[in-house]
Amino acid sequence: MKLHLTNLDELIQKVRNVHAKNYINESIAAYRNGAYRASLITTWIAVCVDIIEKIRELSLSEDPAAKKLEEQLDKIQPNDPNSMLSFERDILNVACDELQLISTIEKSHLERLKDDRNICAHPTFSDDGSQFTPPAELALAYIVQAANYLLIHPPVKGKVIVQRLYELTSVRLKIEQI
User: Fold this and answer.
1) CB 83 within 8 Å of CB 75
2) CA Rg value for the chain
3) Residue 155 phi/psi, 5° resolution?
4) Would you write out the chain's pLDDT as a tens digit for each of its 178 residues?
5) 125: which strand partners?
6) Contact 70, 56 (CB under 8 A)
7) Which domain of life does the UniProt lineage start with (predicted)?
8) 84 lies in which domain range?
9) How distant, in Å, are the alpha carbons of 5, 143, 160 from that of 58?
10) Is the distance from CB of 35 to CB of 143 less than 8 angstroms?
């Protein structure tokens, strides 16, 4: 049986956005040094940054949903962390439902990352008083999932593509009927 594991150095090179690449690179460095909590936290940040950057890219290409989301982002003030937290709380729904950047299964996997990130970033004790310590395999899995689901892909215009195809076929049907 041949076992194939993702080469993290190759994975980094495939990440499109420079900001997301910096975060996932930091996550991989933390993973390699045994700082698995830090790795999970930074992987989650890479996911958020990548989605935000994809919103901005799609907005430039006139995607109406992305334009609306970019306007929301632009209204968030640096001294208002609650607004950013609110946006972050819903970011996977936005990526899946509004922009169709990820599938529902991918969203489910990334929700687990988000939940584990919250456990890692905030003091939560188990019954015996210890902190959650993610295993190396979990940190690695989240890095690979984040990259394969989002970071290495360009923004796909989901609904806009379907809408434009519909418009094109409608125009063709009208022309053919004439």
Assistant:
1) yes
2) 19
3) -70, 125
4) 555 678 999 999 999 999 999 999 999 999 999 999 999 999 999 999 999 999 999 999 888 999 999 999 999 888 888 888 889 999 999 999 999 999 999 999 999 999 999 999 887 666 777 788 899 999 999 999 999 999 999 997 655 566 666 777 776 666 666 5
5) 131
6) yes
7) Bacteria
8) 8-177
9) 32, 24, 10
10) no
Q: Classify residue 150 by its DSSP letter.
A: I
Estimate to the nearest angstrom the gap between the alpha carbon of 45 and the chain centroid. 8
Length of the chain: 178
The tokens describing 84, both together, are 């950013």
Say which residues have a Cβ less than 8 Å from residue 95's Cβ, sequence separation at least 6: 51, 54, 101, 102, 107, 150
- Cα three-residue angle 111-68-89, rounded to 5 degrees: 25
Domain count, the chain: 1
Angle at 3 between CA 12 and CA 9, to 5 degrees: 15
Beta-bridge partner residues of 131: 125
Which tokens in the block code for residue 132? 């959650």
Q: Is 38 among the domain residues?
A: yes
Amino acid in position 70: E
What is the per-residue burial (b if ≥16 Cβ within 10 Å, else e) of 30-60? bbeeeebbbbbbbbbbbbbbbbbbbbbbbbe
pTM: 0.84
For residue 1, tell me if it sits in a domain. Answer: no
